[in-house]
């Protein structure tokens, strides 16, 4: 579980003064709230299909709001199609040196000296067997308290990432797309995205968007991930299929933005159509300034989102790096062909 301090800090970004108190903007048109506010909710403004639902428990909301604290980010610029500049002209975005980490509770060692460099505009993929440390690495980068860093350094845009709280990491430009996105009954996608977007705007000292302005912002993003407008009125991930949940993660990335998007097995549970939709959206968000780190088991994702660098993780460290041909070797010969010496 996240500790109380981290939870409070993340909830502050959502302006929640109680276990579940959101601005009147987010009240459901069918709720029995005693609020005297005349604010109009998203659903009633756009006549989206509505259904009454109970408010989530404080545990559910704290958990999801904290997870999404990693998503209160700066906007992504429009995608460009120009060639990536030479390496000497790129800025170093993320540098990981000799990173080691253990499970906080048991002190079991998971990461055993990870070394990686990410430059702006690059797509990287990490592959490896189950238990090799791939997902742990991603969680350490976003500051998950289940893991304790025991050595090494991580520098993000010239700053010490390990000294930042999780919400500070998100505000600095890191997004985490979860392998198993959680659901939160009673909070619509529209209300949640608008709340998260405005929380980020407040943190950055930028104007907040009301429902109408935010609708204009989010509408084009729905087309990117091939989602219907009624998804905005559905509770976050509640009753969603695996493909819908992953599309919803990418919708959040598109709306909220990132300098570095970490996608943890975004392809798991997707049929071919959903995979193509997700990949198309991610490709559409790539610019010369932002980067993507994909964690995956399968080559099929890499056929749609082309990485410049593929890294093989084994026993908590990177044992081999190469280009996309490395994935082809894995597909044909398995990990035994690339075992550490």
UniProtKB/TrEMBL annotation:
Every copy of the ABC transporter domain together lies at: 94-340
The record, for InterPro entries, names: AAA+_ATPase, ABC_transporter-like_ATP-bd, ABC_transporter-like_CS, FeS-cluster_ATPase_SufC, P-loop_NTPase
Q: Extract the CDD domains matched here.
A: ABC_FeS_Assembly
Q: Name one GO molecular function term.
A: ATP hydrolysis activity
Keywords attached to this entry = ATP-binding, Nucleotide-binding
Q: Which SUPFAM superfamilies match?
A: P-loop containing nucleoside triphosphate hydrolases (SSF52540)
In terms of NCBIfam families, this protein maps to: sufC (TIGR01978)
Q: What is the name of the protein in this document?
A: ABC transporter domain-containing protein
